Amino acid sequence: MSAYRIGIVGLGKIAQDQHVPVIAADPDFDLVAVASQRAMRAPGVSRAFTDWRDLLADPDVDAVAICTPPGVRHQIASAALDAGKHVLLEKPPAATLSELVDLERRAAEAGRVVFTTWHSQYNRGVEEARLRLAGQRLRALQVTWKEDVRRWHPGQAWIWEAGGFGVFDPGINALSIVTRIAPEPIFVRSATLETPENAQAPIAATLELAAGRAGERLGAVFDWRQTGPQTWDIDIETEAGAKLALRHGGSRLEVDGTVVVDEPAHEYEGIYRRFAELLRDGSSQVDAAPLRLVADAFMVARRTATERFDP
């Protein structure tokens, strides 16, 4: 079978660091076009557009990976589906839940595939944790997700605007792991969001989570101000007494103090492997659970102002 001809809309850091090289190494895909407002190009790709509409009009493009900020993804993805293209959405897949529901409907009506990618779910430690937690009940869960925004989002102003997600841009990765591995539904009971005085989106967040039973201790702490080593950890204890720890974003899993998975992350390789499967099957995969938890956090949050932050 010939490779799927794919285009990328949005050539920011994640597209350059992950999508472009992973597609180049995947025999199921051929990167044939890119679109970037800044007129950026990808190695070996001759068709480079400044307007994404021109990319969608290209008859040689079968599918598009949309790697723009979330605020414009619904518009671009809708147009892509109307143009007969299959759609892969970087995380978060849309700015709102309503937009995501609409994209799923549009894909079904168009007979095209839409795929919401939650890259952290594709670490092997995450899948192993899911299997080990199946049928269990959670007694405790603590997410600690702290990183340096200047390192991962240099000069990006959109993340501080309304709809830019702020610290939930990385925090949603942790929540995507939680919703993947938890053996029962998880809810947001309360939240505190710290927002710089010159921003609309939070720089830090603390969530009280719940599975709906007395005595549970479930929570998450996100912070974008950590310099030096970065922290992407999830610690879990079941009612049966088992203790699991996911480290380094899910690439390392410890069970009762013993390392059972420790390997380099191959998240985007997993994403494109799954996308190829969906394209062959002609089926969509839309997972709204991580986005729903973020939306719930904003709905119930107590907001506090913190000092000005200049990226």
Automatic annotation (TrEMBL):
Residue stretches making up the Gfo/Idh/MocA-like oxidoreductase N-terminal domain: 5-115
Pfam families: GFO_IDH_MocA
Identification of the protein by name: Gfo/Idh/MocA family oxidoreductase
